[in-house]
Amino acid sequence: MKDYIEFKEFGECEIDVEKVIKKFTLLHRIFQWRNEFYLVEYTPKCKRKLKVCIKEKDAKEIIKKLNLKAFKDDLFVNAITYVPVG
């Protein structure tokens, strides 16, 4: 997944949306905190491997094309996690 991300020291990272969509698995999540979106990748042992801030437009495109399901957090009211169904 790192091959498709142009990392920046701060701000939103540029991603190749089509390639990210092809590589997206059950180990990946889109995390939303208010108006900020993050692409998160976990290891099979549930340790966070990657977390980068991405553009809202890119996040919504990934969510729509992969039909990700939204889960609201009861503790953090402004947090939503989008996960693959299946």
Lay out the secondary structure:
Elements: E1 5-6, E2 14-15, H1 17-23, E3 28-33, E4 36-42, E5 48-54, H2 56-66, E6 69-72, E7 79-83
Antiparallel strand pairs: 1-2, 3-4, 3-7, 4-5, 6-7
Helix pairs in contact: 1-2
Question: How is this structure best described in words?
Answer:
With 86 residues, the chain is α+β, with helices and mostly antiparallel strands. Helix content is 21%, strand content 38%. The chain has two helices and seven strands. It has a five-stranded antiparallel β-sheet with strand order 5-4-3-7-6, with helices on one face. A two-stranded antiparallel sheet has the order 1-2. A hairpin with a 6-residue loop joins strand 6 (69-72) and strand 7 (79-83). Helix 1 (17-23) packs across helix 2 (56-66). It starts with a strand and ends with a strand. 12% of the residues are buried. The model has no long low-confidence stretch (mean pLDDT 93).
Distance between the termini: 20 Å
Total of DSSP H or I helical runs spanning 4+ residues:
2
What is the approximate shape?
A: globular
**Segments where pLDDT lies below 50 for 5+ residues?**
none
Note the quaternary state here. Answer: single chain
Beta strands, count: 7
Structural class: alpha+beta
How much helix is in the residues?
A: 10-25%
Radius of gyration: 12 Å
The profile of the biggest β sheet is:
5 strands, antiparallel
Question: Which percent band covers the strand fraction?
Answer: 35-45%
Whole-number mean pLDDT = 93
SSE succession: EEHEEEHEE
Strand order of the largest sheet: 5-4-3-7-6
